[in-house]
Amino acid sequence: MNALIAMLAQRLKGLRGEGLRGQLVKGGIGSLGVNGGRILLQFAVAVVLARALGAAGYGVYAFALAIVTLLAIPAQVGLPQLVVRETARAQVEERWARMRGLWTWSTVFVLAFSAVLLVPFVIAWTVGIPFLSEDRASALLWGLLLVPLLALGQLRGAALHGLRRVVLGQLPEHIIRPALLVIFTLIVIVLPLSYPLDAAGAMALHLLAAAIAFVFGAWLLLRHIPEQLHGLRTREYDARVWLSAAWPLALLGGMHVINHSAAVVVLGFFATDADVGVYRIVAQAATLVSFGLTALTQVVMPHFSRLHREGDYHRLQQLVTQSARAILLLSLPPAIVFVLFGEWILAVVFGEEFAVGYVALVILVSGQLVHAAMGPVAILLNMTGHEKDSLKGVATAAVLNVALNLSLVPLFGLEGAAVAMALTLTTWNLLLRRAVMRRLGLEMLAVPMTRKTRHD
């Protein structure tokens, strides 16, 4: 993996001296390391919770977490990506008061939205939610308390990303939080408690891990803010512009969440808790295929914004093409492993009751491979100010996803949900690739389908 990052940097010989190439190598290796750790820890969380809760208990946990993730959309309001983009721009333009104002404004906004969101749902839980079982309702209540912590944690990471502290920006949410959740879960399992761990208890442990990770992330940001911000009292606000950019990003983030959570929610209403648990496991396993996409996106995100801001589309095309090739090379090995040995892996690692998800796993792996082959298409649009085009494509895919899940899940269960997700990923990426070609004249594919782009 490190060799792929070095190859990516070496191929970009036209970039400014050693500056950007050095940042790509350093940030890329670090990001791959962090994301590799994140993947391993996510698997550790899934294995530990699946073994501790069983398929049905894990299904309750997954259903509650999916509902919480959907409810958290308004609390974030699309701010993390906005903070990355605007922090990078403010640093380039040396507008330190604007950077300080952006961070303050986004924090207050998240806290206000979280308060608005939490109060009615706590009241609803108190009086009872008819369509939820007691186990689901208890897990959901603990999960709701996660909303502000997760949203604020992502803002802290976004600020570090914008400052080109790629690795540090990912540590709290990608490493610290899942690592603590694994540790806390193992401690509870080992301790001779009078009651077994259930879905609500697992969600409470998740809340504790998130709180500690948030404190750690806030400390990291304080240690690495630019020197110009030390002692700076002035804050420059541009709320109208930020809100104008944040709403499309919020809707975009919401569509992403719907795409990733729709199957779990629909399965929760039309299938058993065990089916929900199995699907959640195979969906997490399939995301290994797009590991390279996730890792390299964190590296190139601020550079997309900077190169576009400078109007250097030739170097931007180079960066896009080489990152797409690195992503594709990283995606093929896990795809092959899951197709050949997926059933055995599910049975041995997670338990025999999860082996029934093998067919769904193969279908999801196919969709994730298409997703990875298209490269960081959504991030490129978002980082270059074309979030509305990104929103249109993702919104279309989200509507398709919900419609397909409602049509296929009642008939085909796990496999129906997997087909819905695979078709959604394919449709979404094709739509966004067309938008990139139209707006920026750039080709996203690792192996271009056209001989020339507008900026060759």
UniProtKB/TrEMBL annotation:
The record's listing under Pfam families reads: Polysacc_synt
Please list every transmembrane segment annotated in the UniProt record, as residue ranges. 39-56, 62-84, 105-127, 139-163, 175-195, 201-222, 242-269, 281-305, 326-350, 356-381
Query: Where does this polypeptide localize?
Result: Cell membrane
One GO cellular component assignment for this chain's record is: plasma membrane
State the annotated membrane topology for this chain: Multi-pass membrane protein
Q: Which domain of life is it from?
A: Bacteria
Against InterPro entries, the record matches this protein to: Poly_Biosynth_Transport, Polysacc_synth
**Per UniProt, which keywords does this protein have?**
Cell membrane, Membrane, Transmembrane, Transmembrane helix
What is the designated name of this protein? O-antigen/teichoic acid export membrane protein
Record the organism: Natronocella acetinitrilica
